[in-house]
């Protein structure tokens, strides 16, 4: 049997590099910039006033001087004339400073006159000027490779007039469930049928981890149907990874195994519970590029635990994001574990007064107990060589915070 660590490494090796994509800045929040972007213009693009007041020549504007107001410059004026010597002009915050002016007198330091203005306090030259390029000069790096787009980056990109930014796209994963017993919600169940639940569950888990996911319509246990569904979708070359559920264990009609074992997916038993039957590899369709596949067992708990143990860490690492946090917790009661298999039990954490956590196992080990999985806020990670742990002993838990 393969160890959890070995299979995790095999899955991690399959996760491809992220594609680059040009997106409007506000659609790229959270994504890393793909490469340095130089500012196409300077900011501010023109020297403007930081205050509402009067633009003057400092030499004309001693305290007590009265100057004629030659014209007004509201924000947005695009045809600003030069300032005549000996005159002032009214100027608003963000409006372009006229040629000839070298100082701004804030309105509070004047009488606020409209045709003539009395200066109450002589201005310092250059004060209250926001010089062109004082924020960033055209040609300087505005967006740095690897930095994640946030609201302020969106603002900067927009101020620079950038309509799109090149970022690393999230990995895009197609999810496909298999099983002749599966039906869609809304259809009454016949005896022997169940509602398909793995694909929406895994797609949600993928999205929560930062990938994008699409659900392919599930297939019955017929290899041709499976291959047909995959060929139909994978031709476009825009799927980074396929996750399947079901059809990988040791019974008859193991559709994923039958269809993909000869096409490049390697199937292995991993020494863990739940989630022993696993597979991964790459598959080519119609001469297109080979697509990485990760195949999970169909039991819902096995499928989601497999995601948490194998795929989530690889995806998060590929996207430069931290994985789930782990911590040590004290067992609320004794636990038995299958020797030779690393066990992932569902648990609930309770904070204790001394700052530590205690953890209770909830539900049984059965891999179909979705209800308990839904109640769990952590997975206990019990090493393969452990058979029994007494209440009060420390265990490692993976915190499932959503
Ligand atoms: P399999 O791995 O295909 O042998 O399936 C193992 C168990 O999981 C069976 O009880 C299946 O009915 C169940 N199962 C498989 N796929 C799904 C699914 N997509 N949704 C819900 N249950 C499933
Ligand atoms: Mg099945």
TrEMBL record:
Catalyzed reactions: adenylyl-molybdopterin + molybdate = Mo-molybdopterin + AMP + H(+)
- Signal peptide span per the entry? none
Tell me the pathway: Cofactor biosynthesis; molybdopterin biosynthesis
What are the names of the required cofactors?
A: Mg(2+)
Q: Do you know which InterPro entries this protein is assigned to?
A: MoaB/Mog-like_dom_sf, MoaB/Mog_dom, MoeA-like, MoeA_C_domain_IV, MoeA_C_domain_IV_sf, MoeA_linker/N, MoeA_linker/N_sf
Enumerate the Gene Ontology biological process terms.
Mo-molybdopterin cofactor biosynthetic process
Instruction: Indicate the segments forming the MoaB/Mog domain, all copies.
Output: 174-317
Q: What is its EC number?
A: 2.10.1.1
By its UniProt entry, which SUPFAM superfamilies does this protein fall under? MoeA C-terminal domain-like, MoeA N-terminal region -like, Molybdenum cofactor biosynthesis proteins
Gene3D superfamilies membership? MoaB/Mog-like domain, MoeA, C-terminal, domain IV, Molybdopterin biosynthesis moea protein, domain 2, Molybdopterin biosynthesis moea protein, domain 3
| GO CC terms, sorted | cytosol
Q: Which UniProt keywords apply?
A: Magnesium, Metal-binding, Molybdenum, Molybdenum cofactor biosynthesis, Transferase
Query: Its Gene Ontology molecular function terms?
Result: metal ion binding; molybdopterin molybdotransferase activity
Spell out the family assignment given in the record's similarity comment.
Answer: Belongs to the MoeA family.
- Give the protein's biological function: Catalyzes the insertion of molybdate into adenylated molybdopterin with the concomitant release of AMP.
Protein name from the UniProt record: Molybdopterin molybdenumtransferase
Q: Which organism is it from?
A: Tsukamurella spumae
Q: What is the lineage of its organism?
A: Bacteria, Bacillati, Actinomycetota, Actinomycetes, Mycobacteriales
């Amino acid at each position: 049997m393969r160890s959890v660590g070995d299979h995790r490494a095999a899955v991690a090796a399959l996760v491809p590099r992220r594609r680059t994509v040009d997106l409007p800045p506000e659609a790229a929040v959270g994504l890393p910039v793909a490469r340095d972007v130089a500012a196409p213009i300077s900011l501010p693009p023109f020297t403007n006033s930081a205050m509402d007041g009067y633009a003057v020549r400092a030499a004309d504007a001693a305290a007590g001087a009265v100057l004629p107001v030659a014209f007004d410059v509201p924000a947005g004026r695009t045809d600003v004339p030069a300032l005549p010597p000996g005159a002032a002009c009214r100027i608003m915050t963000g409006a372009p400073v006229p040629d000839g002016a070298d100082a701004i007198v804030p309105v509070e330091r004047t009488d606020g006159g409209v045709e003539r203005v009395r200066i109450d306090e002589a201005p310092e030259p250059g004060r209250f000027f926001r010089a062109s390029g004082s924020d960033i000069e055209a040609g300087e790096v505005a967006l740095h490779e690897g930095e994640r787009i946030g609201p302020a980056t969106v603002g900067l990109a927009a101020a620079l007039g950038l309509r799109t930014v090149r970022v690393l796209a999230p990995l895009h994963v197609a999810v496909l469930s298999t099983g002749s017993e599966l039906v869609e919600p809304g259809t009454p169940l016949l005896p022997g049928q169940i509602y398909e639940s793995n694909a929406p569950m895994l797609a949600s888990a993928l999205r929560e981890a930062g990938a994008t996911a699409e659900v392919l319509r599930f297939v019955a246990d017929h290899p041709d149907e499976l291959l047909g569904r995959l060929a139909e979708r994978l031709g476009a070359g825009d799927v980074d990874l396929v996750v399947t559920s079901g059809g990988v264990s040791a019974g008859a009609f193991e559709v994923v195994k039958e269809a993909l074992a000869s096409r490049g997916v390697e199937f292995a038993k991993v020494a863990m519970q739940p989630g022993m039957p696993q597979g991964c590899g790459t598959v080519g369709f119609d001469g297109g590029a080979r697509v990485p596949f990760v195949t999970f067992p169909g039991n819902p708990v096995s499928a989601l635990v497999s995601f948490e143990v194998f795929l989530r860490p690889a995806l998060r690492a590929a996207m430069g994001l931290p994985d789930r946090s782990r911590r040590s917790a004290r067992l609320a009661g004794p636990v038995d574990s299958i020797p030779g298999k690393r066990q992932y039990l569902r648990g609930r954490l309770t904070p204790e007064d001394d700052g530590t956590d205690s953890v209770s196992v909830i539900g049984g080990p059965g891999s179909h107990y979705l209800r308990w999985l839904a109640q769990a806020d952590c997975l206990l990670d019990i090493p393969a060589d452990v058979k029994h742990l007494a209440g009060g002993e420390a265990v490692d838990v993976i915190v499932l915070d959503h």
